[in-house]
Specification:
This protein has 388 residues and is an alpha/beta fold. The protein is built from eleven helices and 17 strands.
Length: 388
């Protein structure tokens, strides 16, 4: 802050400013007047508000993983995080990166090691100490801002510390060595969902579902859309026999008008009947987004949550519901009652798309176009080229 230097000229009959100040006699007249005011500026450096907000949000996220969402709001919609040569673009990817980073490394506290430095108003470098039970990792965040939001964040380990690839990069986000891993992954801070794109899941002798779901009891609890069962039921039964699985099947309607409390209660009764073992028998939901939403909510509520997996069979379900973790039923309004409950696995089998009606295809394409319009020029061009 600026300091005000008051230049005072004192005029007093008993005080000659050119000589040592004598003792003032009683009754002497004393007068002073302000002749000039001069402003003296100091050179204090203040941290920009948007950098302070980011530091505060990082600290809160370290202490409480559920507050990663608040951190992500400080990034642009298509903001970028880069670590160990891997790029995570878009708020969804940024959230998954920080959620995995904080959880897997078990960080419990954060310290800003020195004053943030910058070369201009739209960039900053933060040096942080992230402490876990095994010690403290020093990292640097090289930040670029635009209109107060993070445009890019490059994470680097401090010199002499372990590399981001070795100790900071979440293992679930590392590229697969053999290319056989899941197509995508999501992470809600508790459950890591793997999303697999594999056609022919129900081909005779294909062990992929059995092995991926780690079914060890010889039984698969299958909750399936009535329309899907009518078309593929015999194929599913033949597949189950070929991989030595017993199907425990629950068939329910998958229309929007069946996304109700009544269907939800029926599913709870069925879950009680089949009594899935919590760890060894995840439930598999096969059908459109309505069915997977309803089954997911029932699994979230039964015994305070039993593991589940899903296989969306409609185009809309595969491009939209497949990556979300919200599950709900309609009550007084669409999705009026629900929860956040991630499946263990989502299986995308495009073989189901060949039996869809034209209206179902249009619904899915509409969702693809919406996503392309707001986020991806490449997808928009792909739809424009092959939309016919």
């Amino acid at each position: 802050p600026a300091l005000l230097l008051l230049v005072l000229v004192l005029r007093c009959q008993a005080w000659d400013l050119r000589a040592p100040a004598p003792l003032l006699r009683a009754g002497c007249r004393r007068r002073c007047s302000v002749m000039a005011v001069e402003t003296v500026h100091t050179t204090a450096t203040e941290t920009p508000v948007h950098v302070t907000r980011l530091v505060d949000a990082l600290s809160l996220a370290v202490s409480d993983r559920r507050r990663v969402d608040e951190l992500v709001t400080l990034f642009e919609y298509d903001g970028l995080v880069e670590a160990a040569g891997e790029r995570y673009s878009g708020q969804g990817a940024v959230k998954r990166f920080f959620s995995s980073l904080l959880l897997e490394n078990g960080f419990t506290s954060m310290e800003v090691l020195d004053t943030p430095s910058s070369k201009g108003p739209d960039d900053a470098t933060l040096r942080l100490g992230l402490t876990s039970a095994t010690g403290t990792d020093e990292v640097a965040l090289l930040l670029t801002f635009r209109n107060g939001l993070v445009r890019e964040c490059h994470l680097q380990a401090a010199e002499g510390a372990c590399s981001p690839a070795g100790c900071l990069l979440p293992s679930a986000l590392e590229p697969s060595e053999n290319g056989g891993g899941p197509k995508w992954e999501t992470f809600d801070g508790r459950v890591r969902q793997k999303i697999w794109q594999r056609p022919g899941a129900f081909e005779l002798g294909n062990p992929f579902i059995k092995e991926t779901m780690e079914l060890s009891t010889g039984r698969l609890i299958l909750i399936v859309d009535q329309s899907v069962w009518d078309i593929y039921g015999e194929k599913m039964q033949a597949w189950a026999a070929s991989v030595e699985l017993q199907l425990e099947t629950v068939v329910i309607p998958g229309n929007e008008d069946h996304k109700t409390l009544a269907t939800f209660a029926h599913l709870l009764d069925e879950l009680k009947r089949v009594d899935p073992l919590r760890r060894s028998e995840p439930v598999l939901a096969v059908g459109g987004g309505v069915l997977t939403d309803t089954v997911g909510f029932a699994c979230a509520c039964w015994r305070r949550g039993v593991p589940w997996c899903r296989m969306p069979t409609t185009l809309l379900g595969q491009v939209d519901a497949s990556v979300g973790i919200k599950v709900a039923i309609n009550y007084h309004r669409k999705n009026g009652v629900g929860h956040f409950f991630s499946p263990l696995h989502t299986f995308i089998d495009t073989d189901f798309l060949g039996s869809l009606e034209a209206a179902d295809v249009r619904s899915g394409v509409g969702e693809i176009m919406k996503a392309a319009l707001v986020h991806s020029e490449r997808i928009w061009e792909l739809v424009s080229t092959h939309g016919e």
